[in-house]
Specification:
The protein is of the alpha/beta class. It folds into 2 domains: 132 residues, Aspartate Aminotransferase, domain 1, CATH 3.90.1150; 225 residues, 3-Layer(aba) Sandwich (Aspartate Aminotransferase, domain 2). Helices cover 38% and strands 15% of the residues. The protein contains 15 helices and 14 strands. The chain has a 7-stranded mixed sheet, sandwiched between helices. A 3-stranded antiparallel sheet has the order 11-14-13, with helices on one face. The chain is globular, with a radius of gyration of 21 Å. The two termini are 32 Å apart. Bound molecules: pyridoxal-5'-phosphate. Pyridoxal-5'-phosphate (PLP) binds next to helix 5. The site of pyridoxal-5'-phosphate has 14 residues, from helix 5.
Length: 385
């Protein structure tokens, strides 16, 4: 359906020095790797940023802009996170990845064990290991109907030293939006083992099918005190270069503890990022709706193409995100599939091996690009299949 927005972008406008995604690889490669969208930002955000630089980019309310806090409160409540205390329920940070690191260093000690479910967005792994915590990886199960939590693997991952679970919902790279039943069972698991949980819900606004339910909404009152939800605008609004996120919790004490663990080390969110998030939250929603509709069609195109033209590649269409996770393990070049597709196919994808032990042979494709580019990239994959 035609919209006011043209997302069928021209590669010539994308390949410029400020664009890491489009300049990391040689000019004959189509870059469908890092999680940026190739679309121009929402017009309302562009206007707000231009306006802001003409006024002031000096020191600002770096400990929490009151207008943003008010807007965000309305958003998180509308999204289903209710019952938050009046004060101390949010703490801003320079991105969601810093929030993952902050949770690890503040809620665990060196030598403790931290669980996450793999495959997983690589900073979940480094957040655990970079500061001397032990990674306890619980592999997801790939069933004929899609990726699921492997409850036995999760139980087996728990040790007496396990303090924290880093959870991803919606999940990068599989695109799973966990169901109410799964979230309830996970809440029971986390509570039974007396863990903390940091739930990264950065992709929630990019849910393509069904409804995203925040994890904390299904936690008991006691568990809510041990839960931090990490949110941000950068995936839905394509503004990752500005760096801002928020840690949300029913427990001001928990947020203070996390904040103290990174005091003076992690930067505050910048003035421009605050303006950007404010503009996103007061946008009329037309741009985001058009993006989601476009992504859904791209998602469907990828699914059809893989089924018809890439025999042997296993792929379950994502319910959220703009990321497709391909299992190429039966391919003759499974041992170096990312390199093979880059060198022979001239398509840059993310290497599955980075997403946890046991995921060599997988690749992640970012379909948030123009349909012409996406079609050409898929054709290239088929040509070297
Ligand atoms: C699940 C997830 N968390 C965090 C991030 C990065 O967040 P930020 O740039 O706000 O640190 C990404 C980026 O793709 C992501 O997919």
């Amino acid at each position: 359906m035609p919209t006011d927005f043209d997302f069928d972008v021209d590669p010539r406008t994308l390949r410029h020095p400020d664009n890491f995604k489009w300049t990391r690889y040689p000019a004959d490669v189509l870059p469908l790797w890092i999680a940026d969208m190739d679309y121009p930002i929402a017009p309302g955000i562009e206007r707000a940023l231009k306006d802001r630089v003409t006024r002031s980019i000096g020191y600002h309310h770096y400990q929490g802009d009151p207008r943003l806090t008010e807007q965000l409160r309305r958003k998180v409540e509308a999204d289903g996170i209710t019952g938050l205390p009046e004060q101390g329920w949010v703490s801003y940070i320079a991105g969601v990845v810093p929030g993952l690191y902050a949770a690890v260093v503040s809620l665990t000690d060196p030598g403790d064990d931290v669980i996450t479910m793999t495959p997983i967005y690589p900073p979940f792994l480094s957040a655990i290991t970079d500061h001397g915590r032990n990674l306890r990886a619980a592999k997801l199960a790939c069933t004929p109907t899609g990726w699921e939590i492997d409850w036995d693997a999760l139980e087996a991952a728990v040790t007496p030293k396990t303090k924290l679970l880093l959870f991803c919902h919606p999940h990068n790279p599989t695109g799973r939006v966990w169901t109410e039943a799964e979230l309830r069972r996970l809440a029971e698991f986390v509570e039974r083992h007396n863990l903390f949980i940091a739930s990264d819900e950065l992709h929630a606004d990019l849910t393509l099918d069904g409804t995203h339910i925040p994890f904390v909404q299904l936690a008991s009152e006691a568990l809510k005190q041990r839960c931090v939800t990490l949110i941000g605008p950068c995936k839905a609004y394509n503004t990752a270069g500005l760096g801002i996120g928020a840690m949300v919790s029913h427990s001001p004490q928990l947020l203070l503890r996390i904040r103290r663990g990174i005091a003076g080390i992690s930067a505050w969110a910048t003035a421009l990022s605050v303006t950007m998030w404010q503009a996103a939250l007061e946008d009329d929603g037309q741009w985001l709706k058009a993006v989601i509709d476009y992504l859904r069609e791209n998602r469907n195109l990828v699914e059809t193409f893989v089924n018809e033209r890439l025999p042997g590649v296993v792929h379950v269409a994502p319910q959220a995100t703009y990321l497709a996770w391909f299992d190429y393990r039966s391919h003759r070049r499974a041992a170096d599939i990312q390199q093979y597709l880059l060198e022979e196919g001239k398509v840059a994808l993310n290497d599955g091996a980075m997403f946890g032990a046991g995921f060599q042979g997988f690749v992640r494709l970012n379909f948030a690009t123009g349909r012409t580019i996406l079609t050409e990239a898929l054709e290239r994959l088929a040509r070297v299949h």
